[in-house]
């Protein structure tokens, strides 16, 4: 992908209706963190969609506002530089960019296709990468997957880290892959295996704690460039690091 800025897009944006899972009432201090939870599968009965819904619920239980979205509602044409030059960004890429920018972090529940990233997920990343400022830059990301296989889609998540980290996303080290997903979910949407349910809940809680620290308690300021094509105008980035 070229590092040239995207062509101007229309200021009018449309997208899928918002499905925000409201946080469980807590101590009432401050506004809740907003996390975009995106299902990367187009299939209606997708296990990754079920995992996204469960993750959104766990985020809400930890005090966050989860903005649940499905990639099929933001369908985009295959990336084509000539189309971008003539027509600008697709309306759905603008809408998804806006949802991402409105959040402090995002969760991506992505399937694994042939041991790698699904084309529709990579295509969405490629379109969003053309915006300036870069919407993935400095966003915290948690990657989860579900698959009927014994690998749980884990190989696809390792491949997915590469473009996201290249674009400046701060991908959480721990990922969650749900194997044998066709047998994993109960009628309530929780996982039958309580150990796996607890592990996912612990991962979500730890991820959210990092996002909260980085958002509300920055410990330092410094110039932060993740890749050579980063030409954003921000001079410094606030960071909470341990």
Question: How many angstroms separate the termini?
Answer: 33 Å
The count of DSSP E runs of length 2 or more, i.e. the number of strands, is: 9
- Average pLDDT for all residues: 85
Q: What Rg, in angstroms, do the CA atoms define?
A: 18 Å
Q: Strand-residue fraction? A: 15-25%
Structural topology:
Elements: E1 19-21, E2 34-39, H1 47-61, E3 65-70, H2 81-87, H3 91-101, E4 105-109, H4 119-128, E5 140-146, H5 154-166, E6 170-171, E7 176-178, H6 194-216, E8 220-222, E9 237-239
Parallel strand pairs: 2-3, 2-4, 4-5, 5-6, 5-7
Antiparallel strand pairs: 1-3, 8-9
Notes on the protein architecture:
There is one protein chain. By secondary structure, the protein is an alpha/beta fold. The protein contains six helices and nine strands, in the order ββαβααβαβαββαββ. Strands 1, 2, 3, 4, 5, 6 and 7 form a seven-stranded mixed sheet that branches. A two-stranded antiparallel sheet has the order 8-9. Strand 2, helix 1 and strand 3 form a beta-alpha-beta unit.
Characteristic key phrases:
single chain, two-stranded antiparallel ribbon, 242 residues, 7-stranded mixed sheet, 6 helices, disordered N terminus, alpha/beta
Task: Summarize, please.
It contains 6 helices and 9 strands, in the order ββαβααβαβαββαββ. It is of the alpha/beta class and 242 residues long.
